[in-house]
Amino acid sequence: MEKINYWLVCTSSANWESCKEHKLWGVDRFKSAYRQTQISKTKQGDILIFYVIHKGVSGYARVDSKVFLSEKPVWCDGVYPVRINVEFLKNIEREALPFAVLVDIKNDITNTPLYNGLCIRGKSMIPITDGPLLVEAIENA
Q1: Distance in angstroms (rounded) separating the CA atoms of residues 111 and 88
Q2: Domain that holds residue 72
Q3: Cα 59 to chain center, whole Å?
Q4: Residue 35 backbone phi and psi in degrees, to 5
Q5: Which end of the chain is less crowded, N or C, counting CB atoms within 10 A of the terminal residue's CB?
Q6: Are the C-beta atoms of residues 52 and 139 closer than 8 Å to each other?
């Protein structure tokens, strides 16, 4: 059985709603080679943990496809043509969970872009030891 990777993805409230509606995650092809490289590392079965900027952790989804290109408009602020299909496993319908209370800082989560205040629309890999903790906290929300 192949190892499941956990990815922290950051997005705006409007784009979060579009992700849920269309069951997609996407990144820009031209603005960030880093983001495009990160999304290309995802595989079916990986888990995306969604952080909505200014709100908190709002849910998680399983990657359901290989990376593909599409120019179909989905998001309000850009095309984000490098995409993957996702299946949402849990959405927090009430107030999102603040990120800091979800993890034991001893797990060295301090190196993630979100923790350092650099959360941008892109993908950052959460160490495998922290991913399951976040999923458990979301499930218990």
Answers
A1: 26
A2: 6-139
A3: 9
A4: -65, -40
A5: N
A6: no
- Please report the sign of the dihedral spanned by the C-alpha atoms of residue 109, residue 75, residue 24, residue 37: negative
> Is 89 inside a domain boundary?
yes
Burial class (CB in 10 A: 0-12, 13-18, 19+), 136: exposed
127: number of Cβ within 10 Å: 14
Q: What are phi and psi of 113, to 5 degrees?
A: -55, -35
Q: Give the total number of structural domains in the chain.
A: 1
Give domain status of residue 117, yes or no. yes
Asked whether residue 1 is domain-assigned, the answer is no
**Residue bearing tokens 């872009």:** 113
Tokens of 112: 């993630």
| pLDDT tens-place string over residues 69-125 | 999 999 999 899 999 999 999 999 788 887 665 554 345 444 554 444 445 444 455
The residue among 82, 79, 90, 103 whose CA lies nearest residue 50 is 90
CATH, residue 64: 3.10.590.10
Cα separation of 126 and 75, whole Å?
Answer: 24
pTM of the predicted protein model: 0.83
Does a structural domain hold residue 63?
yes
Q: Token pair 């993957």 is at which residue?
A: 84
